[in-house]
């Protein structure tokens, strides 16, 4: 859910700029702010003990980041890293909660957003649990295509690199590369200028 920028500013939000690859917050830090992306792309990820990175989600303009943790008070179980140069609106937890108390429509929208996030997480767990690489990747593409509203047989330009796909579905990059080639041979997708169209 995108909250109107002027409304956030009226409750004390400020614009923050982050360079590509700069951390916005870290695993273990306690949430003190609501973050809404104004420009750019942000990736939420975890790094496992063996050093393997798992991408939990990629967020674009208008998306907010891990706002559910503002209600629980629990530390972040993930990192947020600017994937590209980003501008983010940041408002204190206190200001954000005050906004929700005074605007029932925003509160309802936030509940809808949190429900959507839960749906996303449930679906991603199902994708990761798939045993076959082709099924994992196809399910990921189908889900994102539907999630962003690309339907009626329209072609979806996959916004992820092969390495990001591997990190999202728990595969090795080499396996993703082989599987995508196989999917191309089976006419399930096309590749133009190294970009995947599904």
Overview of this structure, please?
This protein has 198 residues and is of the alpha+beta class. Helix content is 41%, strand content 23%. The protein has seven helices and nine strands. The protein has helices spanning 5-10, 69-72, 93-102, 104-129, 133-147, 162-169, 173-185; strands at residues 14-18, 23-25, 33-39, 42-47, 53-59, 79-82, 86-92, 190-192, 195-197. The strands form three sheets. A four-stranded antiparallel beta sheet has the order 2-6-4-5.
Write the layout of secondary structure elements.
Blueprint: H1 5-10, E1 14-18, E2 23-25, E3 33-39, E4 42-47, E5 53-59, H2 69-72, E6 79-82, E7 86-92, H3 93-102, H4 104-129, H5 133-147, H6 162-169, H7 173-185, E8 190-192, E9 195-197
Antiparallel strand pairs: 1-7, 2-6, 3-7, 4-5, 4-6, 8-9
Through-space gap between termini: 26 Å
Q: Biggest β-sheet, characterized?
A: 4 strands, antiparallel
User: What is the number of strand segments?
Assistant: 9
What is the name of the CATH class of the largest domain?
Answer: Mainly Beta
Mean of all residue-level pLDDT scores: 92
Keywords:
single chain, 198 residues, alpha+beta, Arc Repressor Mutant, subunit A, 2 domains, 4-stranded antiparallel beta sheet, 3-stranded antiparallel beta sheet, 41% helix, globular, Env_Response_Regulators, transcription
Give a quick summary of the entry.
The protein contains seven helices and nine strands, in the order αβββββαββαααααββ. The chain is of the alpha+beta class. The longest helix is centred in the middle third of the chain and has 26 residues, at 104-129.
């Amino acid at each position: 859910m995108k909250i109107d920028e002027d409304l956030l500013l009226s409750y004390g939000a400020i614009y923050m700029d982050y360079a590509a690859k700069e951390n916005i917050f870290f695993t273990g830090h306690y949430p003190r702010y609501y973050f809404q992306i104004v420009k750019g792309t942000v990736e939420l990820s975890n790094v496992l003990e063996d050093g393997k990175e798992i991408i939990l989600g990629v967020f674009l303009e208008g998306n907010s980041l891990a706002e559910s943790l503002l209600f629980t008070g629990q530390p972040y179980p993930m990192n947020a890293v600017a994937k590209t140069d980003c501008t983010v609106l940041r408002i204190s937890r206190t200001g954000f909660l005050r906004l929700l108390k005074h605007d029932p429509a925003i509160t309802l929208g936030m509940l809808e957003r949190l429900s959507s996030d839960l749906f996303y997480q449930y679906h991603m767990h199902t994708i990761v649990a798939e045993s076959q690489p082709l099924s994992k990747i196809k399910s990921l593409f189908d889900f994102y295509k539907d999630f962003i509203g690309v339907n009626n047989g329209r072609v979806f330009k996959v916004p992820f690199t092969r390495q990001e796909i591997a990190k999202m579905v728990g595969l090795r990059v080499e396996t993703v590369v082989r599987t995508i080639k196989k999917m191309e041979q089976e006419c399930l997708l096309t590749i133009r200028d190294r970009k995947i169209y599904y």
